Amino acid sequence: PGNNTLEFRITLRPQPVQGECVDVGGRHLMAQILGSSTITLPEGGNASVQPDLALFASTGFPYVTVTRPEGGAVYLSSEALRGSALTLIGKLAQVSGAVTEGWRIKLGVPPAIEERAIVLAPPKALPEDLFTNWSAAIGRTVRWPYRIINDIRAAEGAASIAAALDWMTGRKARPGLRGWVEQDADLGPLGVLMAFRSPAAPVTVTLVTAASEDRIAERVDELVQPELWSQIRGDLVAWDRPGEVAAVMQVADFFVVGQGSRWLTLRLLLSNNPWYWLSGVVGSGAVAALVSVLLLRRRQRALQPERVERG
Question: Cα 109 from chain centroid?
């Protein structure tokens, strides 16, 4: 994914010979690449596992791609966030090394998004239906997994963050406990970047949100700085000050986007879920061992009467 560069390195290595004066005979490698030369690559599948904010931060994917040169849609809660949207688009052009045209900036956040999109809006402007398939939600009702609460409290500067998240302290989270806290509240000083699958289509939605539009503008300016941008990974990132990430985690299940063969899709799923193929290897070994034992027992029974006869 992202902008790729092909580099050709042609090296001629003579045969290993000895002597002060050596003449290497035979035909030698010749290569010439002109400005009018064309390079044709074979057709291949293109697919990626989403959501992946690390891929988004390093290549601009899925909004900067070779197969779909046009940019995605950017949904804003109001015109006041247009500058922040352009800042984020410019950052994607920088990390991808390519300018992507065709971005469509739209006002208002629809409950059903059927195209790859970036959303900039405060929680009150976000429809609840947007988070149907996600175990976290940022809206009028904020829903956080227990694990992110632990991560936020353990981060540097946890005192200021905990003060901003007083609504969470009603129930103490214990490490390893599954579930979430759900209460009516705002995000305090936090900026949140998250990526998840749209409930309306198998496309990625990337959301940048904070308590208000003014705070979103501040957090976007902080987000595009190298010290914070370089820490982006998983599918949810929260921060409350320049250069300091409060929480980074993977919340949502993976899904595959793109076009490719079933074999390519299977390889992607197995590479991101290694316990599947490990279970398959263990299961195959167990089946092979069982079949071997049964064959040996059958052979032993077949040879036993012959031994009795000879005795």
Answer: 23
Report the half-sphere exposure of 99 (CA within 13 A, side-chain side).
Answer: 2
Distance between CA atoms of 150 and 97, rounded to whole angstroms? 37
Helix (H) or strand (E) holding 229: helix 226-229
Rank 76-85, 89-98, 232-241, 250-259 by mean pLDDT and report only the highest.
Answer: 76-85
301: helix, coil or strand?
helix
Instruction: Give the Cβ contact number of residue 61 at 10 Å.
Output: 23
Q: Is there a contact between 129 and 112 (Cβ–Cβ < 8 Å)? A: yes
pLDDT digits (tens, 9 = 90+) for 123-163: 889 888 888 777 666 765 666 565 555 555 555 444 444 44
The residue written with tokens 């200021």 in the block is 160
Which phi and psi angles does 143 have, rounded to 5°? -120, 120
Token pair in block for residue 13: 């290595």
pLDDT digits (tens, 9 = 90+) for 5-63: 778 777 666 556 666 665 555 566 667 778 898 888 777 777 788 899 999 999 888 88
| DSSP structure class, residue 26 | S
Calpha distance 220→115 (Å, rounded): 22
Distance CA 257, CA 202 (A): 7
* Dihedral angle, C-alpha 273, 275, 276, 277, nearest 10 °: 100
